[in-house]
Write a structure and sequence with these properties.
This protein is an alpha/beta fold. Helices cover 39% and strands 21% of the residues. A six-stranded mixed beta sheet has the order 1-3-2-4-5-6, sandwiched between helices. A four-stranded antiparallel beta sheet has the order 7-8-9-10, covered by helices on one side. Helix 4 runs parallel beside helix 8. The longest helix is centred in the middle third of the chain and has 16 residues.
């Protein structure tokens, strides 16, 4: 099954969904919102399309006839930071955390609101395209961001970041030394539809700490302020 919207739309989204009715609904929603949409119903077909089409974003179901969506996610994440949103019939927090820890940028349980789906797609695409100005570089201690190149280094070692992880770092580094509350950080990085969605924030902070910290259990770059939010100290404590 391959469903496509008109070819003149700039941003292309790949839908990996084995339920034909759901795929058609999502394709129509995306087309009406101004995107090009392509849908496939098998995991291997998804990997082939990702390689051939280089889509701007992937909407990925977990249950597929030939492979698990989490395995697809891990395979893509081994070589790419392509924006990916999980669409799943599983709504439990644990399933969501597993997907986020595997590298998903977002997770939506079915059934979902059409308006929220489009809002989250647009928010993630904005996050990929966004580079704050007028800054070109940010530095906090040994952590450096080169914004024109969208590259991060710590102790001169290159960090491989997802678009969401990059957005979190930009926000924290621009306001280093200041506590940023949970909802403000969510709004800055994900958009207004994520207020109160703290699990997605916690998982991404945890992944960032694994990349930044010598000891992620005793972080010095992204520090939790209980009941408030996070801050990035300008001096090591």
């Amino acid at each position: 099954m391959v469903i496509s919207s008109p070819e003149d739309v700039q941003q292309q989204i790949l839908i990996v969904e084995d339920d034909e009715d759901t795929a058609e609904v999502v394709c129509t929603l995306l087309q009406d919102a101004g995107f090009e949409a392509v849908a496939v119903d098998h995991g291997q077909a998804a990997l082939n399309e990702i390689s051939a089409l280089s889509p701007d974003l992937v909407l990925l179901d977990i249950n597929l006839p030939d492979m698990n969506g989490i395995d697809i996610l891990k395979s893509v994440r081994s070589h790419s930071f392509l924006p990916m949103i999980i669409l799943s019939g599983y709504g439990k927090d644990r399933d969501r955390v597993v997907a986020l820890e595997a590298g998903a940028d977002d997770y939506m349980a079915k059934p979902f609101s059409p308006e929220e789906l489009i809002a989250r797609v647009r928010a993630l695409l904005r996050r990929v395209d966004w580079t704050p100005k007028p800054e070109t570089h940010l530095t906090v201690r040994q952590l450096e961001l080169d914004m024109p190149r969208r590259q991060a280094k710590i102790n001169n070692k290159r960090l491989h970041l997802t678009p969401i992880e990059y957005g979190i770092l930009v926000t924290l580094m621009r306001r280093a030394g200041e506590v940023i509350n949970h909802d403000e950080l969510l709004r800055s990085v994900w958009g207004d539809h994520y207020k109160g969605d703290y699990s997605v924030l916690r998982v991404n902070i945890s992944r960032l700490r694994q990349k930044l910290e010598d000891n992620p259990r005793r972080p010095t770059y992204i520090v939790t302020v209980p009941g408030q939010g996070y801050w990035m100290p300008t001096n090591r404590h």
